[in-house]
């Protein structure tokens, strides 16, 4: 969405909030291999989700579907990227945060150790989930406070 907004002239976005995001139609990162089974979200489930998202497998090469495949990330809005240690998607989030920073996009990457995909929904049981919710809320407040008064919500 951030790339489409930039490339097609709007709407202006104030912030990218990416919580354990899927950013590439590939299933070969170290985190996909290390966390393929046993931590909730599986590699097989992610392959199924992608098959529901794309009209055809070949569409996964499109940078609008797989933002990590974009050649240029300059001009995107600031980002908050949340990753979890035991998540198949961890390495995609880390790579995107690095690429955004290299492109000059302000990025706040939070990597939660001991966490699994979907851990924010476990705030009643997992301490780092409560911390993550507070961190994300703070980042949103700061991001919205820095946007121009005329910017849309």
Write structural notes for this entry:
The chain is an alpha/beta fold and 153 residues long. It is built from five helices and three strands, in the order H-E-H-H-E-H-E-H. It has helices at 2-7, 30-34, 43-53, 90-102, 127-146; strands at residues 16-19, 79-86, 107-116. Strands 1-2-3 form a three-stranded parallel β-sheet, sandwiched between helices. Strand 2, helix 4 and strand 3 form a beta-alpha-beta unit. The radius of gyration is 16 Å and the shape is globular. The two termini are 15 Å apart. Mean pLDDT is 90; it is low at 149-153.
Instruction: Kindly report the oligomeric state of this protein.
Output: single chain
SSE arrangement, N to C: HEHHEHEH
Shape: globular
- N-to-C span: 15 Å
Provide a concise account of the structure shown:
With 153 residues, the protein is an alpha/beta fold.
Indicate the topology.
Layout: H1 2-7, E1 16-19, H2 30-34, H3 43-53, E2 79-86, H4 90-102, E3 107-116, H5 127-146
Parallel strand pairs: 1-2, 2-3
């Amino acid at each position: 969405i951030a790339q489409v907004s930039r490339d097609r002239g709007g709407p202006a976005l104030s912030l990218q909030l990416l919580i354990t995001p899927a950013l590439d139609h590939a299933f070969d990162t170290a985190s996909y291999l290390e966390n393929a089974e046993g931590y909730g979200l599986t590699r097989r489930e992610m392959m199924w989700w992608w098959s529901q998202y794309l009209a055809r497998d070949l569409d996964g090469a499109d940078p609008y579907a797989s933002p990590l495949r974009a050649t240029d990330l300059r001009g995107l809005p600031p980002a908050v990227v949340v990753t979890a240690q035991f998540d198949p998607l961890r390495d995609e989030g880390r790579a995107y945060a690095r690429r955004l920073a290299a492109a000059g996009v302000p990025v706040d990457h939070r990597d939660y150790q001991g966490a699994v995909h979907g851990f924010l929904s476990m705030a009643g049981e997992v301490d780092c989930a409560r911390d993550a919710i507070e961190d994300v809320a703070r980042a949103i407040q700061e991001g919205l406070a820095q946007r121009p008064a005329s910017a849309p919500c």
